[in-house]
Amino acid sequence: MIERRPVLTVISHLVLILGVLIVAFPVYITFVASTQTADAIVQAPMSMLPGAHLIENYKTALFGNEAGAGSTAPVGRMMWVSLVSALTIAIAKITISLLSAFAIVFFRIPFKSFFFWTIFVTLMLPVEVRIGPTYQVVADLGMLNSYAGLTVPLIASATATFLFRQFFMTVPDELLEAARMDGAGPLRFFKDILLPLSSTSIAALFVIQFIYGWNQYLWPLLVTTDEHMYPVVIGIKRMISGGDAANDWNIIMATAMLAMIPPALVVMLMQKWFVKGLVDTEK
């Protein structure tokens, strides 16, 4: 029986409320700034109440602003580039990791342990070590300022391969034997048995990889020079051109708020599957 202590309950709730306020306050300030004029934001102190320019600022951000000092590309286009890149990276990472883990666990391949640990060792290499050669390959193949250049170098994941391998190793051998007795081939066993068993892990990894792809900064900064191929994170950086007075901070803050929406929606819509995929141990 769990003993309930009112004092500890109150303290725990206060700590939770304090944590929410600490996290939510910068978001609220960003939202307030996105509803103000550019002149109102640079004044000290800035108003803590939302302004009357919400629709105007968000419309300008979505469809472009020819008068801005920095990048004036439409944020709607940037969000589309980010969405395509994030979905491609997430789906491709999961697909490649599932297939590679399936091959490593269920196929008799010479030196398969060596190949697995070769994949795993890549986690120890910092991004900066391989980003130069990767950029050279992408440039030589003419993939700069393209969706392929933004996504293809990022679609392999040693972490996801390791996680799926560990999960597949817990699948009982009886399932494999039963599938063989029913005449199921490797692909049917993969599709009808392994994929349903892996659904929660796939959902959890999809959320993580989507946010990873959406928030990419360093790689898109190297491979994109055309405004129409900027992801939204790069777009925010390009909008900042100089001192405070030279930037349209209201438009920049509106862009930042818009950039938060897709990842937040993915997390909220898939929260149940995400948590279950991280904590569920039933096989």
Task: Give the % helix.
Answer: 55-70%
Structural class: mainly alpha
- What do we call the CATH homologous superfamily of the domain at 76-246 and 259-279? MetI-like
Sketch the topology as an H/E string, one letter per element.
Answer: HHHHHHHHHHHHHHH
Shape: globular
- Characterize the biggest β-sheet: none
Tally of DSSP helical segments: 15
Secondary structure: number of strands: 0
pLDDT averaged residue by residue: 85
Low-confidence stretches: none
Q: The CATH topology of the domain at 76-246 and 259-279 is what?
A: MetI-like fold
Our measurement of the CA-to-CA distance between the termini, rounded to an integer number of angstroms, reads 29 Å
Query: Which architecture name of the domain at 76-246 and 259-279 does CATH use?
Result: Orthogonal Bundle
User: Rg to the nearest angstrom?
Assistant: 24 Å
CATH class of the domain at 76-246 and 259-279: Mainly Alpha
Which band does the percent of strand residues land in? Answer: under 5%
Helices and strands, with pairings:
Blueprint: H1 6-33, H2 38-42, H3 54-63, H4 75-106, H5 112-121, H6 127-140, H7 147-151, H8 158-168, H9 173-181, H10 186-197, H11 199-214, H12 218-223, H13 232-239, H14 249-269, H15 271-279
Helix pairs in contact: 1-14, 3-14, 4-8, 4-11, 5-8, 11-15, 13-14
Folded structure, characterized:
This protein has 283 residues and is an all-alpha fold. It has a domain at 76-246 and 259-279: Orthogonal Bundle (MetI-like fold), CATH 1.10.3720. The protein is 69% helix and 0% strand. The chain contains 15 helices and no strands. It has helices at residues 6-33, 38-42, 54-63, 75-106, 112-121, 127-140, 147-151, 158-168, 173-181, 186-197, 199-214, 218-223, 232-239, 249-269, 271-279. It is globular. It starts with 5 loop residues before the first helix and ends with a helix. The model has no long low-confidence stretch (mean pLDDT 85).
